[in-house]
Specification:
Layout (H helix, E strand, L loop, with lengths): L3 E11 L5 E2 L4 E2 L2 E10 L4 E5 L7 H12 L11 H11 L7 H22 L3 H4 L7 E5 L9 H13 L4 E5 L4 H15 L4 E5 L6 H12 L6 E2 L7 H10 L4 E3 L6 H9 L5 E2 L9 H13 L10 H10 L6 E3 L7 E3 L2 E3 L2 E3 L9 E2 L1 H7 L6 E3 L1
Parallel strand pairs: 6-7, 6-12, 7-8, 8-9, 9-10, 10-11
Antiparallel strand pairs: 1-4, 1-17, 2-3, 4-5, 6-15, 13-16, 14-15
Helix pairs in contact: 1-3, 2-3, 5-6, 7-8, 9-10
Pfam family, one: MR_MLE_C
InterPro entries: Enolase-like_C_sf (IPR036849), Enolase-like_N (IPR029017), Enolase_C-like (IPR029065), Mandelate_racemase_C (IPR013342), Mandelate_racemase_N_dom (IPR013341), RHMD-like (IPR046945)
Keywords: Magnesium, Metal-binding
Length: about 375
């Protein structure tokens, strides 16, 4: 029995490596709440989640005052039981991002602890379906960039072995098409181009744009509508010649079920932090598999690489390097493919010194 003896909570703040602007927001900073869980044998599991600049202190408070104290004395191996107990404990604040992000940090730490005790890497403990995952890059596709900058980044990405890139959309439709056409002409037909609207459109506008994007052989149109408008996504999917991708702003496995049952999407982009951790992430991935739908998760590539390798229907991994400043070694990339670590645990090589440098003063708490 891996009895939990104490829980450490703290938050790190990181600035983005490049300016990140999309159709509705700018990524100003990444608040990264961390949870470290120690068992009676001294084995430690580390988990984390993130925000894009707001809500981090609320997550830390929820962890400190409510969720972490409930872990003390629990058997860390009973991950499913703990997840449901904590979810029911916070039923008045679910379904929603703050609770999901707090649950995720705990759940990920428990999975890290389990893998370390078993001396297995996460990608094998969770399934072991694939050895590597193809990468596409988002870092050079932000909305504020000029067509020349988009082309330059896409050409460099292709030369580096990447197999695709993502371009943010949300400018007037003719501008968006011109930007996409410039990239398509530069990289050729064999290179994937994905688009991301960040929930900026209404149904009629999304249908119109999807038809315009079709001529450029776009891989998917991501988050075209508000994430809670499932019926709108149904209408769009029925009329769109471009696959519709959703998931980064969906916080419940049941909501993914509704999307899939109603034929409201063609690509699932479930985010391990925003869905509430590895436990529900795996459920959503296997649910999508039953509908013959691919999983292409949003952000957090350092953790998602192992989860993608664990399941058979993961098709793409999104390249946005954000945690490099907190690790000794980065994710292994060869010929445009990402490989999960074979080290026990999550496979993230944390640098304690770097974490201490970036830790937000006053955010550290230890619960016993």
């Amino acid at each position: 029995m891996a009895t939990i003896t104490h829980v450490e909570i703290f938050m790190v703040e990181l600035k983005p490596k490049v300016k990140r602007v999309d159709a509705i927001q700018s990524f100003d900073c990444q608040e990264t709440p961390f949870v470290r869980i120690t068992d009676a044998d001294g084995v430690v599991g580390t988990g984390y989640s993130y925000t894009i600049g707001t809500g981090g202190p609320a997550i830390i408070s929820l962890l400190e005052r409510t969720l972490a104290p409930a872990l003390i004395g629990k058997d860390a191996e009973r991950i499913e039981s703990i997840w449901h107990e904590l979810s029911f404990m916070t039923h008045a604040t679910t379904v929603g991002p703050l609770t999901a992000l707090a649950l995720a940090a705990i759940d990920i730490a428990l999975w890290d602890l389990r893998c370390r005790r078993a001396r297995l890497p996460l990608h094998l403990m969770a399934g072991g379906a694939q050895q590597s995952i193809p990468l596409y890059t988002t870092e050079g596709g932000w909305l504020h960039l000029s067509p020349a900058a988009l082309v330059d980044d896409a050409v460099k990405a292709k030369a580096s072995g990447f197999q695709g890139c993502k371009i943010k959309v949300g400018r007037p439709v003719n501008e968006d098409v011109a930007r996409l056409r410039a990239v398509r002409e530069a990289v050729g037909e064999s290179f994937e181009i994905f688009t991301d609207a960040n929930q900026a459109f209404r149904v009629d506008e999304a249908i119109r744009r999807a038809r315009r994007y079709e001529e450029l052989d776009i891989g998917w149109l991501e988050e075209p509508l508000p994430a809670d408008d499932i019926s709108g996504h149904v209408r769009l999917s029925q009329h769109s010649p471009v696959p519709i991708a959703i998931g980064e702003s969906v916080y419940s496995a049941l909501h993914f079920r509704e999307y899939l049952q109603q034929g409201a999407c063609s690509v699932v982009q479930v985010d391990v932090a925003r869905i509430g951790g590895i436990t529900p992430w795996l459920k959503v991935a296997h649910l999508a598999e039953c509908f013959n739908v691919p999983v292409c998760p949003h952000f957090l590539m350092e953790l998602h690489v192992s989860l993608c390798a664990a399941v058979p229907n993961a098709r793409w991994l999104e390249y946005i390097p954000q945690l490099d400043d907190l690790t000794h070694t980065g994710m292994r990339i060869e010929n445009g493919r990402a490989f999960p670590s074979d080290q026990p645990g999550l496979g993230i090589d944390w640098s304690q010194r770097a974490i201490d440098v970036h830790c937000v003063p006053g955010s550290r708490h230890v619960i016993r």
